[in-house]
Write a structure and sequence with these properties.
Elements: H1 11-15, E1 36-39, H2 55-68, E2 72-76, H3 82-94, E3 107-113, H4 116-126, E4 132-139, H5 142-149, H6 153-170, E5 175-180, H7 187-200, E6 204-209, H8 216-229, E7 237-242, H9 249-258, E8 263-266, H10 280-289, H11 307-318, H12 339-347, H13 378-387, H14 394-410, H15 416-426, E9 434-442, E10 450-457, E11 462-468, H16 472-484, E12 488-497, E13 506-514, E14 534-540, H17 543-560
Parallel strand pairs: 1-2, 1-8, 2-3, 3-4, 4-5, 5-6, 6-7, 7-8
Antiparallel strand pairs: 9-10, 10-11, 12-13, 13-14
The structure holds acetyl coenzyme *A (ACO) and 3-methyl-2-oxobutanoic acid.
Length: 563
Protein backbone atom coordinates (compact mmCIF):
# COMPACT_ATOMS: atom_id res chain seq x y z
CA UNK A 1 0.00 0.00 0.00
CA UNK A 2 1.32 3.47 -0.86
CA UNK A 3 1.90 5.75 2.12
CA UNK A 4 1.40 9.50 1.81
CA UNK A 5 4.72 11.39 2.08
CA UNK A 6 5.01 13.99 4.82
CA UNK A 7 6.55 16.73 2.64
CA UNK A 8 3.84 18.26 0.52
CA UNK A 9 4.39 21.06 -1.97
CA UNK A 10 2.84 24.48 -1.34
CA UNK A 11 -0.11 25.73 -3.42
CA UNK A 12 2.32 28.04 -5.26
CA UNK A 13 4.48 25.08 -6.23
CA UNK A 14 1.47 23.26 -7.59
CA UNK A 15 0.18 26.32 -9.43
CA UNK A 16 2.34 25.30 -12.37
CA UNK A 17 0.84 21.83 -12.42
CA UNK A 18 -2.61 23.36 -12.92
CA UNK A 19 -4.87 21.00 -14.86
CA UNK A 20 -2.38 18.12 -14.61
CA UNK A 21 -4.12 14.92 -13.63
CA UNK A 22 -1.84 12.80 -11.45
CA UNK A 23 -1.45 9.13 -12.33
CA UNK A 24 -4.13 6.93 -10.80
CA UNK A 25 -3.09 5.05 -7.69
CA UNK A 26 -6.18 3.57 -6.01
CA UNK A 27 -5.38 4.45 -2.40
CA UNK A 28 -3.24 7.53 -2.85
CA UNK A 29 -3.28 10.75 -4.88
CA UNK A 30 0.30 11.74 -5.75
CA UNK A 31 -0.55 15.45 -5.85
CA UNK A 32 -2.09 16.57 -2.53
CA UNK A 33 -3.91 19.43 -4.26
CA UNK A 34 -5.72 17.18 -6.67
CA UNK A 35 -9.35 16.33 -5.93
CA UNK A 36 -10.84 13.22 -7.52
CA UNK A 37 -14.31 13.53 -8.98
CA UNK A 38 -16.35 10.36 -8.49
CA UNK A 39 -19.48 10.68 -10.58
CA UNK A 40 -22.48 8.66 -9.43
CA UNK A 41 -25.08 9.97 -11.89
CA UNK A 42 -25.50 6.46 -13.29
CA UNK A 43 -25.98 4.90 -9.84
CA UNK A 44 -27.30 7.31 -7.21
CA UNK A 45 -28.51 9.69 -9.94
CA UNK A 46 -30.58 6.89 -11.42
CA UNK A 47 -32.14 6.41 -7.98
CA UNK A 48 -34.12 9.62 -8.65
CA UNK A 49 -37.75 8.60 -8.94
CA UNK A 50 -38.56 8.10 -12.62
CA UNK A 51 -35.00 8.51 -13.91
CA UNK A 52 -34.36 4.90 -15.01
CA UNK A 53 -32.29 4.66 -18.18
CA UNK A 54 -31.68 1.98 -20.78
CA UNK A 55 -28.22 0.35 -21.02
CA UNK A 56 -27.57 2.28 -24.24
CA UNK A 57 -28.48 5.59 -22.61
CA UNK A 58 -26.22 4.80 -19.67
CA UNK A 59 -23.40 3.98 -22.06
CA UNK A 60 -23.88 7.28 -23.92
CA UNK A 61 -23.76 9.20 -20.65
CA UNK A 62 -20.67 7.27 -19.50
CA UNK A 63 -18.90 8.23 -22.73
CA UNK A 64 -19.82 11.86 -22.13
CA UNK A 65 -18.65 11.65 -18.50
CA UNK A 66 -15.29 10.47 -19.81
CA UNK A 67 -15.16 13.52 -22.12
CA UNK A 68 -15.96 15.64 -19.09
CA UNK A 69 -12.95 14.05 -17.44
CA UNK A 70 -14.41 12.52 -14.29
CA UNK A 71 -11.91 10.31 -12.52
CA UNK A 72 -14.38 7.65 -11.44
CA UNK A 73 -17.69 6.57 -12.97
CA UNK A 74 -20.01 4.65 -10.68
CA UNK A 75 -21.86 2.87 -13.47
CA UNK A 76 -24.60 1.16 -11.48
CA UNK A 77 -25.75 -1.57 -9.15
CA UNK A 78 -25.04 -4.74 -11.20
CA UNK A 79 -27.03 -7.06 -8.94
CA UNK A 80 -30.23 -5.08 -9.26
CA UNK A 81 -31.37 -6.34 -12.71
CA UNK A 82 -30.17 -8.02 -15.88
CA UNK A 83 -30.19 -4.78 -17.83
CA UNK A 84 -28.28 -3.03 -15.09
CA UNK A 85 -25.63 -5.75 -15.17
CA UNK A 86 -25.45 -5.41 -18.95
CA UNK A 87 -25.14 -1.61 -18.73
CA UNK A 88 -22.31 -1.70 -16.19
CA UNK A 89 -20.48 -4.40 -18.17
CA UNK A 90 -20.75 -2.45 -21.44
CA UNK A 91 -19.50 0.70 -19.75
CA UNK A 92 -16.59 -1.19 -18.17
CA UNK A 93 -15.61 -2.82 -21.46
CA UNK A 94 -16.02 0.24 -23.69
CA UNK A 95 -15.52 3.41 -21.68
CA UNK A 96 -13.30 1.68 -19.15
CA UNK A 97 -10.79 0.76 -21.87
CA UNK A 98 -10.88 3.90 -23.95
CA UNK A 99 -7.52 5.36 -23.03
CA UNK A 100 -6.89 9.00 -23.98
CA UNK A 101 -3.63 10.33 -25.44
CA UNK A 102 -2.65 11.53 -22.00
CA UNK A 103 -3.21 8.06 -20.50
CA UNK A 104 -6.51 9.05 -18.92
CA UNK A 105 -9.12 6.34 -18.55
CA UNK A 106 -11.88 6.51 -15.94
CA UNK A 107 -12.17 4.02 -13.11
CA UNK A 108 -15.41 2.02 -13.48
CA UNK A 109 -17.27 1.15 -10.29
CA UNK A 110 -20.04 -1.34 -9.59
CA UNK A 111 -21.78 -0.96 -6.24
CA UNK A 112 -22.67 -3.95 -4.03
CA UNK A 113 -24.22 -4.67 -0.66
CA UNK A 114 -22.00 -6.52 1.77
CA UNK A 115 -22.93 -9.96 0.53
CA UNK A 116 -21.20 -12.45 -1.73
CA UNK A 117 -23.76 -12.46 -4.54
CA UNK A 118 -23.77 -8.67 -4.96
CA UNK A 119 -19.98 -8.51 -4.84
CA UNK A 120 -19.46 -11.38 -7.30
CA UNK A 121 -21.95 -9.84 -9.71
CA UNK A 122 -20.38 -6.39 -9.41
CA UNK A 123 -16.96 -7.88 -10.07
CA UNK A 124 -18.22 -9.81 -13.11
CA UNK A 125 -19.61 -6.56 -14.50
CA UNK A 126 -16.56 -4.33 -13.99
CA UNK A 127 -13.58 -6.68 -14.13
CA UNK A 128 -12.77 -6.07 -17.81
CA UNK A 129 -12.27 -2.35 -17.32
CA UNK A 130 -8.65 -1.18 -17.16
CA UNK A 131 -9.37 0.23 -13.71
CA UNK A 132 -12.19 -1.78 -12.15
CA UNK A 133 -13.48 -0.99 -8.69
CA UNK A 134 -16.12 -2.31 -6.30
CA UNK A 135 -17.86 -0.05 -3.81
CA UNK A 136 -19.45 -2.03 -1.02
CA UNK A 137 -21.66 -0.56 1.68
CA UNK A 138 -23.34 -1.52 4.91
CA UNK A 139 -25.22 0.67 7.34
CA UNK A 140 -23.49 1.58 10.61
CA UNK A 141 -26.06 3.80 12.36
CA UNK A 142 -28.04 2.39 15.30
CA UNK A 143 -31.38 3.04 13.56
CA UNK A 144 -30.36 1.24 10.35
CA UNK A 145 -28.60 -1.64 12.07
CA UNK A 146 -31.54 -2.31 14.36
CA UNK A 147 -34.55 -1.66 12.13
CA UNK A 148 -33.28 -2.35 8.62
CA UNK A 149 -30.55 -4.95 8.91
CA UNK A 150 -31.57 -6.53 12.22
CA UNK A 151 -27.88 -6.88 13.09
CA UNK A 152 -25.62 -5.90 15.98
CA UNK A 153 -22.50 -3.74 15.65
CA UNK A 154 -20.33 -6.82 16.01
CA UNK A 155 -22.15 -8.60 13.19
CA UNK A 156 -21.93 -5.59 10.88
CA UNK A 157 -18.22 -5.24 11.63
CA UNK A 158 -17.60 -8.89 10.89
CA UNK A 159 -19.64 -8.88 7.64
CA UNK A 160 -17.90 -5.75 6.39
CA UNK A 161 -14.38 -7.14 6.90
CA UNK A 162 -15.30 -10.55 5.51
CA UNK A 163 -16.82 -9.03 2.37
CA UNK A 164 -13.87 -6.72 1.72
CA UNK A 165 -11.58 -9.74 1.91
CA UNK A 166 -13.97 -11.69 -0.31
CA UNK A 167 -13.79 -8.95 -2.95
CA UNK A 168 -9.99 -8.91 -2.77
CA UNK A 169 -9.89 -12.67 -3.18
CA UNK A 170 -11.96 -12.38 -6.35
CA UNK A 171 -9.06 -10.35 -7.73
CA UNK A 172 -10.37 -6.83 -7.12
CA UNK A 173 -7.64 -4.58 -5.76
CA UNK A 174 -9.48 -1.30 -5.76
CA UNK A 175 -12.27 -1.45 -3.19
CA UNK A 176 -14.28 1.31 -1.59
CA UNK A 177 -16.10 0.84 1.69
CA UNK A 178 -19.12 2.96 2.61
CA UNK A 179 -20.57 3.00 6.15
CA UNK A 180 -24.12 3.89 5.13
CA UNK A 181 -25.79 6.57 7.27
CA UNK A 182 -22.37 7.55 8.62
CA UNK A 183 -23.56 10.92 9.83
CA UNK A 184 -25.96 9.25 12.28
CA UNK A 185 -23.47 6.57 13.33
CA UNK A 186 -21.64 6.48 16.67
CA UNK A 187 -18.21 7.99 16.20
CA UNK A 188 -16.22 5.29 17.98
CA UNK A 189 -17.92 2.55 15.99
CA UNK A 190 -17.24 4.46 12.78
CA UNK A 191 -13.50 4.80 13.57
CA UNK A 192 -13.41 1.13 14.50
CA UNK A 193 -15.14 -0.27 11.40
CA UNK A 194 -13.22 2.03 9.06
CA UNK A 195 -9.93 1.00 10.72
CA UNK A 196 -10.82 -2.66 10.29
CA UNK A 197 -11.87 -2.46 6.63
CA UNK A 198 -8.68 -0.50 5.90
CA UNK A 199 -6.74 -3.39 7.43
CA UNK A 200 -8.82 -5.80 5.33
CA UNK A 201 -7.67 -4.00 2.18
CA UNK A 202 -9.92 -1.13 1.04
CA UNK A 203 -8.39 1.70 -0.97
CA UNK A 204 -11.02 4.37 -0.38
CA UNK A 205 -13.63 5.09 2.25
CA UNK A 206 -16.64 7.27 1.52
CA UNK A 207 -18.51 9.01 4.32
CA UNK A 208 -22.15 9.38 3.32
CA UNK A 209 -24.64 11.82 4.73
CA UNK A 210 -27.22 9.30 3.54
CA UNK A 211 -30.28 11.18 4.76
CA UNK A 212 -28.94 14.71 4.23
CA UNK A 213 -29.34 15.75 7.87
CA UNK A 214 -25.93 17.31 8.51
CA UNK A 215 -24.89 20.96 8.69
CA UNK A 216 -21.68 21.91 6.83
CA UNK A 217 -19.71 22.53 10.04
CA UNK A 218 -20.88 19.17 11.45
CA UNK A 219 -19.91 17.34 8.28
CA UNK A 220 -16.52 19.09 8.22
CA UNK A 221 -15.95 18.13 11.86
CA UNK A 222 -16.85 14.50 11.06
CA UNK A 223 -14.36 14.29 8.19
CA UNK A 224 -11.67 15.93 10.32
CA UNK A 225 -12.43 13.58 13.24
CA UNK A 226 -12.27 10.51 11.00
CA UNK A 227 -8.91 11.70 9.67
CA UNK A 228 -7.63 12.23 13.18
CA UNK A 229 -8.97 9.06 14.83
CA UNK A 230 -9.19 6.24 12.31
CA UNK A 231 -6.21 3.88 12.37
CA UNK A 232 -4.58 3.65 8.93
CA UNK A 233 -6.74 6.41 7.37
CA UNK A 234 -3.62 7.99 5.84
CA UNK A 235 -3.31 4.91 3.64
CA UNK A 236 -6.62 5.38 1.84
CA UNK A 237 -8.40 8.15 -0.03
CA UNK A 238 -11.20 9.75 1.97
CA UNK A 239 -14.39 10.61 0.07
CA UNK A 240 -17.55 12.63 0.61
CA UNK A 241 -21.05 11.53 -0.43
CA UNK A 242 -23.72 14.08 0.49
CA UNK A 243 -27.47 14.16 -0.02
CA UNK A 244 -29.56 17.26 -0.46
CA UNK A 245 -32.56 16.77 1.84
CA UNK A 246 -31.92 20.14 3.49
CA UNK A 247 -30.40 21.71 0.38
CA UNK A 248 -26.91 21.38 1.90
CA UNK A 249 -25.28 18.68 -0.24
CA UNK A 250 -22.98 21.09 -2.06
CA UNK A 251 -22.11 23.07 1.08
CA UNK A 252 -21.34 19.86 3.00
CA UNK A 253 -19.21 18.47 0.19
CA UNK A 254 -17.22 21.70 -0.02
CA UNK A 255 -16.65 21.66 3.71
CA UNK A 256 -15.57 18.02 3.43
CA UNK A 257 -12.95 18.82 0.82
CA UNK A 258 -11.80 21.90 2.73
CA UNK A 259 -10.91 19.77 5.75
CA UNK A 260 -9.20 16.98 3.86
CA UNK A 261 -11.45 14.70 1.75
CA UNK A 262 -9.84 14.19 -1.66
CA UNK A 263 -12.57 12.36 -3.54
CA UNK A 264 -16.02 13.89 -4.02
CA UNK A 265 -19.06 11.84 -4.96
CA UNK A 266 -21.35 13.98 -7.08
CA UNK A 267 -23.96 13.78 -9.82
CA UNK A 268 -24.71 15.81 -12.92
CA UNK A 269 -27.49 18.33 -12.22
CA UNK A 270 -27.47 17.12 -8.59
CA UNK A 271 -29.94 14.32 -9.32
CA UNK A 272 -30.17 11.38 -6.93
CA UNK A 273 -32.30 9.56 -4.38
CA UNK A 274 -35.08 11.84 -2.98
CA UNK A 275 -33.82 15.46 -3.07
CA UNK A 276 -30.64 14.42 -4.87
CA UNK A 277 -26.88 14.57 -4.36
CA UNK A 278 -24.23 17.26 -4.51
CA UNK A 279 -24.12 18.59 -8.05
CA UNK A 280 -20.91 18.03 -9.98
CA UNK A 281 -21.09 21.32 -11.85
CA UNK A 282 -21.61 23.38 -8.70
CA UNK A 283 -18.80 21.68 -6.82
CA UNK A 284 -16.33 21.88 -9.68
CA UNK A 285 -17.05 25.53 -10.44
CA UNK A 286 -17.04 26.52 -6.77
CA UNK A 287 -13.61 24.93 -6.40
CA UNK A 288 -12.44 26.69 -9.54
CA UNK A 289 -13.80 30.12 -8.56
CA UNK A 290 -12.43 30.01 -5.03
CA UNK A 291 -9.39 27.83 -5.66
CA UNK A 292 -6.78 30.04 -4.03
CA UNK A 293 -8.73 32.10 -1.53
CA UNK A 294 -10.75 29.30 0.08
CA UNK A 295 -9.35 25.97 -1.02
CA UNK A 296 -5.56 26.28 -0.75
CA UNK A 297 -5.03 25.61 -4.44
CA UNK A 298 -7.19 22.48 -4.79
CA UNK A 299 -8.20 21.59 -8.32
CA UNK A 300 -9.96 18.88 -10.34
CA UNK A 301 -9.34 17.29 -13.73
CA UNK A 302 -12.75 18.27 -15.10
CA UNK A 303 -12.95 19.79 -18.57
CA UNK A 304 -15.51 22.41 -17.61
CA UNK A 305 -16.30 23.21 -21.25
CA UNK A 306 -18.19 19.92 -21.36
CA UNK A 307 -20.47 20.75 -18.43
CA UNK A 308 -23.46 22.12 -20.33
CA UNK A 309 -23.45 19.31 -22.88
CA UNK A 310 -23.33 16.67 -20.14
CA UNK A 311 -26.07 18.40 -18.18
CA UNK A 312 -28.36 18.52 -21.21
CA UNK A 313 -27.77 14.86 -22.00
CA UNK A 314 -28.58 13.79 -18.45
CA UNK A 315 -31.65 16.03 -18.42
CA UNK A 316 -32.91 14.44 -21.63
CA UNK A 317 -32.18 10.80 -20.79
CA UNK A 318 -33.49 10.91 -17.22
CA UNK A 319 -36.46 13.20 -17.88
CA UNK A 320 -35.40 15.14 -14.77
CA UNK A 321 -35.98 18.63 -16.13
CA UNK A 322 -34.09 21.48 -14.53
CA UNK A 323 -35.74 24.39 -12.83
CA UNK A 324 -34.87 27.57 -14.78
CA UNK A 325 -32.90 29.00 -11.86
CA UNK A 326 -30.70 25.90 -11.37
CA UNK A 327 -27.17 27.16 -10.68
CA UNK A 328 -24.90 27.22 -13.74
CA UNK A 329 -26.92 25.01 -16.08
CA UNK A 330 -30.49 26.32 -15.61
CA UNK A 331 -32.01 28.38 -18.44
CA UNK A 332 -31.86 31.57 -16.34
CA UNK A 333 -28.42 31.05 -14.82
CA UNK A 334 -26.81 33.63 -17.13
CA UNK A 335 -29.83 35.75 -18.05
CA UNK A 336 -30.30 39.22 -16.57
CA UNK A 337 -33.84 40.53 -16.12
CA UNK A 338 -33.65 43.80 -14.23
CA UNK A 339 -32.63 47.17 -15.58
CA UNK A 340 -29.89 48.01 -13.09
CA UNK A 341 -28.26 44.60 -13.61
CA UNK A 342 -28.65 44.81 -17.38
CA UNK A 343 -27.08 48.26 -17.44
CA UNK A 344 -24.11 47.09 -15.35
CA UNK A 345 -23.72 43.87 -17.32
CA UNK A 346 -23.83 45.70 -20.66
CA UNK A 347 -21.10 48.04 -19.43
CA UNK A 348 -18.93 45.27 -18.01
CA UNK A 349 -20.00 41.61 -17.82
CA UNK A 350 -18.22 40.91 -14.54
CA UNK A 351 -20.42 43.39 -12.67
CA UNK A 352 -23.02 40.63 -12.44
CA UNK A 353 -21.40 37.48 -13.77
CA UNK A 354 -18.96 35.57 -11.60
CA UNK A 355 -17.87 33.17 -14.30
CA UNK A 356 -17.77 33.27 -18.05
CA UNK A 357 -20.68 31.18 -19.37
CA UNK A 358 -18.35 30.05 -22.15
CA UNK A 359 -16.21 28.32 -19.51
CA UNK A 360 -18.94 25.73 -19.01
CA UNK A 361 -19.68 25.40 -22.71
CA UNK A 362 -22.48 27.97 -23.13
CA UNK A 363 -22.39 29.70 -26.50
CA UNK A 364 -24.11 33.07 -26.44
CA UNK A 365 -25.15 34.98 -29.49
CA UNK A 366 -26.69 38.43 -30.02
CA UNK A 367 -29.62 39.05 -27.73
CA UNK A 368 -28.71 36.30 -25.27
CA UNK A 369 -27.90 37.16 -21.69
CA UNK A 370 -30.81 39.50 -20.99
CA UNK A 371 -34.56 39.64 -21.47
CA UNK A 372 -36.83 42.65 -21.62
CA UNK A 373 -39.80 43.16 -19.34
CA UNK A 374 -41.32 45.58 -16.88
CA UNK A 375 -38.13 45.68 -14.78
CA UNK A 376 -35.82 46.64 -17.67
CA UNK A 377 -34.35 50.08 -18.17
CA UNK A 378 -33.34 52.23 -21.12
CA UNK A 379 -29.85 50.72 -21.44
CA UNK A 380 -31.15 47.25 -22.24
CA UNK A 381 -33.95 48.63 -24.40
CA UNK A 382 -31.49 50.65 -26.45
CA UNK A 383 -29.13 47.68 -26.78
CA UNK A 384 -31.84 45.34 -28.03
CA UNK A 385 -33.17 47.95 -30.45
CA UNK A 386 -29.67 48.38 -31.82
CA UNK A 387 -29.36 44.62 -32.20
CA UNK A 388 -32.62 44.69 -34.15
CA UNK A 389 -31.20 47.37 -36.42
CA UNK A 390 -32.85 50.49 -34.95
CA UNK A 391 -30.61 53.46 -34.22
CA UNK A 392 -32.76 55.84 -32.16
CA UNK A 393 -32.02 59.26 -30.73
CA UNK A 394 -32.40 59.82 -26.98
CA UNK A 395 -35.81 61.49 -27.28
CA UNK A 396 -37.04 58.64 -29.48
CA UNK A 397 -35.80 56.08 -26.97
CA UNK A 398 -37.64 57.97 -24.25
CA UNK A 399 -40.89 57.85 -26.21
CA UNK A 400 -40.56 54.14 -26.89
CA UNK A 401 -39.51 53.54 -23.30
CA UNK A 402 -42.72 54.99 -21.90
CA UNK A 403 -44.91 52.60 -23.89
CA UNK A 404 -42.43 49.77 -23.39
CA UNK A 405 -42.96 50.06 -19.63
CA UNK A 406 -46.73 50.16 -20.07
CA UNK A 407 -46.56 47.01 -22.15
CA UNK A 408 -44.21 45.37 -19.65
CA UNK A 409 -46.87 45.87 -16.99
CA UNK A 410 -49.25 43.79 -19.06
CA UNK A 411 -46.98 41.08 -20.43
CA UNK A 412 -44.45 38.81 -18.75
CA UNK A 413 -41.97 39.46 -21.48
CA UNK A 414 -41.58 42.12 -24.15
CA UNK A 415 -40.58 40.36 -27.34
CA UNK A 416 -38.66 41.57 -30.38
CA UNK A 417 -41.95 41.72 -32.23
CA UNK A 418 -43.36 44.00 -29.54
CA UNK A 419 -40.30 46.22 -29.85
CA UNK A 420 -40.74 46.54 -33.60
CA UNK A 421 -44.35 47.55 -33.04
CA UNK A 422 -43.43 50.06 -30.34
CA UNK A 423 -40.83 51.66 -32.57
CA UNK A 424 -43.08 51.89 -35.59
CA UNK A 425 -45.77 53.42 -33.35
CA UNK A 426 -43.68 56.00 -31.60
CA UNK A 427 -40.93 57.14 -33.83
CA UNK A 428 -43.21 58.80 -36.37
CA UNK A 429 -45.78 61.20 -34.99
CA UNK A 430 -49.24 60.43 -36.39
CA UNK A 431 -52.24 62.76 -36.56
CA UNK A 432 -55.39 60.68 -35.86
CA UNK A 433 -57.53 60.18 -38.99
CA UNK A 434 -60.47 58.45 -37.32
CA UNK A 435 -62.21 58.98 -34.02
CA UNK A 436 -64.98 56.98 -32.36
CA UNK A 437 -68.29 58.83 -32.35
CA UNK A 438 -70.81 56.38 -30.88
CA UNK A 439 -71.52 52.71 -30.90
CA UNK A 440 -74.39 50.47 -29.99
CA UNK A 441 -74.13 46.74 -29.49
CA UNK A 442 -76.91 44.20 -29.57
CA UNK A 443 -76.10 40.82 -28.15
CA UNK A 444 -77.90 37.96 -26.50
CA UNK A 445 -79.08 34.43 -27.15
CA UNK A 446 -81.22 35.34 -30.17
CA UNK A 447 -79.64 36.08 -33.56
CA UNK A 448 -76.09 37.28 -34.17
CA UNK A 449 -74.32 39.93 -32.11
CA UNK A 450 -74.36 43.19 -34.06
CA UNK A 451 -72.85 46.64 -33.74
CA UNK A 452 -73.83 49.94 -35.21
CA UNK A 453 -70.98 52.42 -35.18
CA UNK A 454 -70.43 56.08 -35.98
CA UNK A 455 -66.88 57.22 -36.79
CA UNK A 456 -65.72 60.80 -37.29
CA UNK A 457 -63.07 61.52 -39.91
CA UNK A 458 -60.48 64.28 -39.38
CA UNK A 459 -62.03 66.15 -42.33
CA UNK A 460 -65.22 66.49 -40.27
CA UNK A 461 -67.33 63.91 -42.09
CA UNK A 462 -69.35 61.34 -40.14
CA UNK A 463 -69.72 57.70 -41.23
CA UNK A 464 -72.12 55.05 -39.96
CA UNK A 465 -71.96 51.27 -40.50
CA UNK A 466 -73.47 48.17 -39.03
CA UNK A 467 -72.10 44.62 -38.89
CA UNK A 468 -72.81 41.27 -37.35
CA UNK A 469 -69.95 39.13 -36.01
CA UNK A 470 -68.93 36.08 -34.00
CA UNK A 471 -69.23 38.11 -30.84
CA UNK A 472 -69.78 41.73 -29.85
CA UNK A 473 -66.13 42.75 -30.24
CA UNK A 474 -65.87 41.01 -33.60
CA UNK A 475 -69.01 42.72 -34.89
CA UNK A 476 -67.72 46.11 -33.69
CA UNK A 477 -64.30 45.75 -35.37
CA UNK A 478 -65.98 44.56 -38.58
CA UNK A 479 -68.22 47.63 -38.54
CA UNK A 480 -65.09 49.80 -38.26
CA UNK A 481 -63.57 47.96 -41.23
CA UNK A 482 -66.70 48.65 -43.32
CA UNK A 483 -66.12 52.36 -42.86
CA UNK A 484 -62.34 52.51 -43.13
CA UNK A 485 -62.13 50.09 -46.09
CA UNK A 486 -58.48 49.23 -45.43
CA UNK A 487 -57.35 45.56 -45.64
CA UNK A 488 -56.23 44.86 -42.08
CA UNK A 489 -55.08 41.75 -40.28
CA UNK A 490 -55.52 41.43 -36.50
CA UNK A 491 -52.24 40.05 -35.17
CA UNK A 492 -52.81 40.21 -31.44
CA UNK A 493 -55.71 41.05 -29.17
CA UNK A 494 -55.65 40.87 -25.40
CA UNK A 495 -57.78 42.15 -22.58
CA UNK A 496 -56.67 42.55 -18.98
CA UNK A 497 -58.70 43.68 -16.00
CA UNK A 498 -57.04 46.14 -13.71
CA UNK A 499 -59.56 45.81 -10.90
CA UNK A 500 -61.38 42.60 -10.13
CA UNK A 501 -65.16 42.50 -10.18
CA UNK A 502 -67.85 43.29 -12.73
CA UNK A 503 -67.19 47.03 -12.45
CA UNK A 504 -63.46 46.53 -13.16
CA UNK A 505 -61.50 48.60 -15.67
CA UNK A 506 -60.46 46.64 -18.73
CA UNK A 507 -57.40 47.45 -20.76
CA UNK A 508 -57.33 46.29 -24.35
CA UNK A 509 -54.21 45.78 -26.40
CA UNK A 510 -54.47 45.35 -30.14
CA UNK A 511 -51.78 44.71 -32.75
CA UNK A 512 -52.59 44.95 -36.47
CA UNK A 513 -50.79 44.91 -39.79
CA UNK A 514 -51.77 45.30 -43.44
CA UNK A 515 -53.69 42.32 -44.78
CA UNK A 516 -51.07 41.55 -47.43
CA UNK A 517 -48.18 41.73 -44.94
CA UNK A 518 -45.89 38.81 -44.52
CA UNK A 519 -46.43 38.94 -40.76
CA UNK A 520 -44.26 36.56 -38.75
CA UNK A 521 -44.28 36.40 -34.99
CA UNK A 522 -40.83 34.86 -34.55
CA UNK A 523 -38.16 37.21 -33.36
CA UNK A 524 -35.41 35.60 -35.39
CA UNK A 525 -36.45 37.05 -38.72
CA UNK A 526 -34.23 39.74 -40.07
CA UNK A 527 -35.56 43.28 -40.19
CA UNK A 528 -36.02 43.26 -44.00
CA UNK A 529 -38.45 40.34 -43.98
CA UNK A 530 -40.83 41.71 -41.42
CA UNK A 531 -43.67 44.09 -42.29
CA UNK A 532 -44.50 46.65 -39.64
CA UNK A 533 -47.17 46.04 -37.08
CA UNK A 534 -49.05 48.74 -35.18
CA UNK A 535 -50.45 48.60 -31.69
CA UNK A 536 -53.10 50.45 -29.81
CA UNK A 537 -54.27 50.38 -26.21
CA UNK A 538 -57.36 51.72 -24.51
CA UNK A 539 -58.94 51.34 -21.10
CA UNK A 540 -62.49 51.66 -19.82
CA UNK A 541 -65.32 49.84 -18.12
CA UNK A 542 -66.87 48.56 -21.37
CA UNK A 543 -64.90 45.89 -23.15
CA UNK A 544 -66.39 46.61 -26.61
CA UNK A 545 -65.78 50.35 -26.41
CA UNK A 546 -62.26 49.79 -25.11
CA UNK A 547 -61.57 47.30 -27.92
CA UNK A 548 -62.81 49.66 -30.62
CA UNK A 549 -60.79 52.56 -29.23
CA UNK A 550 -57.62 50.45 -29.13
CA UNK A 551 -58.32 49.24 -32.66
CA UNK A 552 -58.84 52.77 -33.97
CA UNK A 553 -55.62 53.92 -32.24
CA UNK A 554 -53.69 51.18 -34.03
CA UNK A 555 -55.49 51.90 -37.27
CA UNK A 556 -54.56 55.60 -37.19
CA UNK A 557 -50.91 54.61 -36.84
CA UNK A 558 -51.16 52.18 -39.74
CA UNK A 559 -52.91 54.70 -41.99
CA UNK A 560 -50.43 57.42 -41.09
CA UNK A 561 -47.39 55.24 -41.78
CA UNK A 562 -45.63 54.88 -45.12
CA UNK A 563 -44.91 51.20 -45.74
C1 LIG B 1 -28.07 4.44 0.39
C2 LIG B 1 -28.18 3.83 -0.94
O1 LIG B 1 -28.45 4.52 -1.88
S1 LIG B 1 -27.92 2.20 -1.08
C3 LIG B 1 -28.26 1.75 -2.73
C4 LIG B 1 -29.72 1.67 -2.96
N1 LIG B 1 -29.99 1.23 -4.29
C5 LIG B 1 -30.85 0.26 -4.56
O2 LIG B 1 -31.46 -0.32 -3.68
C6 LIG B 1 -31.10 -0.05 -6.01
C7 LIG B 1 -31.01 -1.52 -6.33
N2 LIG B 1 -31.77 -2.35 -5.48
C8 LIG B 1 -32.47 -3.47 -5.92
O3 LIG B 1 -32.60 -3.72 -7.10
C9 LIG B 1 -33.02 -4.39 -4.90
O4 LIG B 1 -33.26 -3.69 -3.70
C10 LIG B 1 -32.01 -5.56 -4.65
C11 LIG B 1 -31.97 -6.45 -5.90
C12 LIG B 1 -30.63 -5.01 -4.36
C13 LIG B 1 -32.45 -6.39 -3.46
O5 LIG B 1 -33.78 -6.81 -3.67
P1 LIG B 1 -34.44 -7.83 -2.58
O6 LIG B 1 -33.55 -8.97 -2.43
O7 LIG B 1 -35.80 -8.10 -3.04
O8 LIG B 1 -34.41 -7.05 -1.20
P2 LIG B 1 -35.11 -5.70 -0.77
O9 LIG B 1 -34.64 -4.61 -1.65
O10 LIG B 1 -36.57 -5.84 -0.65
O11 LIG B 1 -34.50 -5.50 0.69
C14 LIG B 1 -33.14 -5.25 0.88
C15 LIG B 1 -32.48 -6.40 1.60
O12 LIG B 1 -31.07 -6.13 1.60
C16 LIG B 1 -30.59 -6.03 2.96
N3 LIG B 1 -29.55 -5.06 2.95
C17 LIG B 1 -29.68 -3.72 2.83
N4 LIG B 1 -28.48 -3.17 2.80
C18 LIG B 1 -27.60 -4.14 2.89
C19 LIG B 1 -26.19 -4.14 2.90
N5 LIG B 1 -25.53 -3.02 2.74
N6 LIG B 1 -25.56 -5.31 3.00
C20 LIG B 1 -26.25 -6.46 3.11
N7 LIG B 1 -27.60 -6.51 3.11
C21 LIG B 1 -28.25 -5.36 3.01
C22 LIG B 1 -31.82 -5.62 3.75
O13 LIG B 1 -31.66 -5.89 5.12
C23 LIG B 1 -32.87 -6.47 3.08
O14 LIG B 1 -32.69 -7.79 3.51
P3 LIG B 1 -33.93 -8.71 4.03
O15 LIG B 1 -34.75 -8.95 2.82
O16 LIG B 1 -33.25 -9.92 4.53
O17 LIG B 1 -34.61 -7.90 5.06
C1 LIG C 1 -24.40 3.61 -0.49
C2 LIG C 1 -24.00 5.00 -0.28
C3 LIG C 1 -22.84 5.42 -1.10
C4 LIG C 1 -25.13 5.92 -0.54
O1 LIG C 1 -25.59 6.09 -1.65
C5 LIG C 1 -25.64 6.69 0.58
O2 LIG C 1 -25.34 6.36 1.72
O3 LIG C 1 -26.38 7.66 0.33
Amino acid sequence: MTTIPSMIPSPQQTKNSIDMRPIYIPNYIPNPYYVRIFDTTLRDGEQSPGAAMTPQEKLDIARQLAKLGVDVIEAGFPCSSQDEFKAVKMIAEEVGNDVGDDGYVPVIVGIARCNQKDIETAWEAVKHAMRPKISTFIATSPIHMEHKLGKSKEEVLEIACKMVKFARNLGCHDIQFVPEDATRSERDFLYQILGEVIKAGVTTVAIPDTVGITMPWEYGRLIADIKANTPGIENVVLSTHCHNDLGLAVANTLEGVRVGARQLEVTINGIGERAGNASLEEIVMALKCKRYDQFDGLYTGINTQQILKTSKMVEKYTGMYLQPHKALVGANAFVHESGIHQDGWLKHKATYEIILPESIGIRRSKGDGYVLGKLSGRAALRKRLEELGFQLKDDEINKVFFNFKALGDKKKRVTDEDLRTLVSNEVTHIEPIWKLGDLQVISGTLGFPSTTIRLINMNGSTHVACSIGQGSVDSALKAVNFIVKEPIKLVEYSVTTIKNGIDGIVTTYVVICRENSNYESTSTLSQENVHPTFSGTAAGTDVVVSSVEAYIAALNKLLGSKE
